[in-house]
Amino acid sequence: MGAPTKFLFDLDFAGNAERKPSEPMMTLAEHAVALAEAETAAHRRGYTEAQSDAGVEAERRIAATLEQIAASLAVANEALQAIEARLECEAVEVAVAVARKLAPALIAREPFAEIATLASECFKQLTAAPHIAVRVNDSLYATAREKLEDIVRARSFEGRLVVLAEPDIAEGDCRIEWADGGINRDRASADAAIGEAVARYIGARRNLAGGHESPAVAATHQTHDIAAAHELLRRTQNE
Hints:
By secondary structure, the protein is α+β, with helices and mostly antiparallel strands.
């Protein structure tokens, strides 16, 4: 038996079989072009996605800003309502203070004017009454008797007119009485009723104003109101 022969891998087992053509290889230049195109496409995709994300973020920020603006406008509206209510209260208080200051002066100048107006309206409605009594302050008795008789004749009142002097009735006030009724002109009672109505109104408006003001602003306004009240009182006393 002969010695084994070393296999040299030089035997072609395929014989005459046709070989598959090998795939064409890419040149370096072509590879560089393809790589550049891939990078450009990736850059475009990234840019588009970034723009989309930026748009979403911008919309979110715009929405948040609009919400803040709406909230700020609501706060500003409440503050303006509070200021309007406070100014309205101050205007009412000033008007009442001026009216209380002027009323006595006007009554002192024309003490019978309001009595005449009230009596004239009563006589016009009570032409068939058998008698009417008018009570006035004793200082106005003579003037009232003379002028009321003129009013009675002008209103064609055919009943009996009685004028009485009452020292307890304030000057400028009166009490008119007839068989089944009567009416009073009482400035003190009217002033008290007006004061209560104004106080209720101002209290409600100030509660509204105080509910929309910060504590610091409310304290400032309270200090201002107190100072204004003291100044008004000082001027009234000096006058």
